[in-house]
Amino acid sequence: MLKKAELKDLLDNLYYKYHKKQSSKDPIWTLHKFQNQQDIEIAGLIISSYAYGRVDQINQFTNRFFERINWNPYEFTINYSQIKDKKHLNDLYYRFNDGKDLSNLIRGIQKALIRYGALKNLFLQLYREDEVNILAPLKFFSESISDRNIYYLLPDISKNSTAKRLNMYLRWMVRKDNIDLGIWSDVISASKLIMPVDTHVYKIAKKLKLVKRKSCDIKFAIELTEKLKEFDAIDPVKYDFALCHLGIDGKEI
What gap in Å lies between CA 206 and CA 44, rounded to an integer? Predict the structure, then answer.
């Protein structure tokens, strides 16, 4: 078992190794094509919601959608009409999801934009700086958009899943470096984020003995986050990108 100092060196070295665009294929690089903050937060939620399966297929699908709407996700979403615009989505299938699911996701985002003005404002409804993490606003955010009619794309936090893709979206919005865009960093602290946990991160965390819990659920994600705070209390989720891609690449530690 590695000592704490050895673990920190390992994690920091992995972080710097993957801390550049050339290190991997990843759906987030599509998000870097957007400049406007309104476009970024909407495109980010759409990309992260579809970030399951093979990376090449994820990128192909999201790029196809954005090309259809001329890379203007805010304008398309705020003006979206199911009757008028469904022709843009009908044949957009991705694994478990069809055009109806995408339409429901866009309508959910539109509803949030109309009520709160921005997705950031929706998240801030329950965000409190004195809370340990973002679990409560995460649940409220998902429920406010999904309205229980978006199959698989947004998690039901009450079912205790890791909410990997939604936590990843928050990482994109809050952290700011060469990878994450950090457009919400002015009002949300990176220290409050919860580690996005998928099977790759789960296996590596168990191998490094970072977490005692066996179940891969939201409690596992929170326990892992608290452990990573021992190595960086201000920005524990910075290790997510490296650990995830280490697992995807199939490399040994």
Answer: 29
Query: What distance in Å separates the CA atoms of residue 226 and residue 242, rounded to the nearest whole number?
Result: 18
Q: Tokens representing 129?
A: 């700086």
211: left (phi over 0), alpha (psi -120 to 50) or beta: beta
Contact 65, 46 (CB under 8 A): yes
Sign for the pseudo-dihedral over CA of 223, 228, 233, 234:
negative
For 81, counting Cβ atoms within 10 Å of its Cβ (0-12 exposed, 13-18 middle, 19+ buried), the class is exposed
Q: Are 69 and 76 in contact (CB under 8 A)?
A: yes
Encoding tokens for residue 160?
């205790």
Per-residue pLDDT for the chain (253 aa), expressed as one digit of tens each? 788 899 899 899 988 888 877 667 889 999 999 999 999 999 999 999 999 999 999 999 999 999 999 999 999 999 999 899 988 898 999 998 999 999 999 999 999 999 999 999 999 999 999 999 999 999 999 999 987 667 789 998 888 899 999 999 999 999 999 999 999 999 999 999 999 999 989 999 999 999 999 999 999 999 999 999 999 999 999 999 888 877 777 666 6
Residues 10 and 16: beta-carbon distance below 8 Å: no
* CA dist., res. 142 & res. 123, Å (int): 9
**Three-class SS of residue 198?**
coil
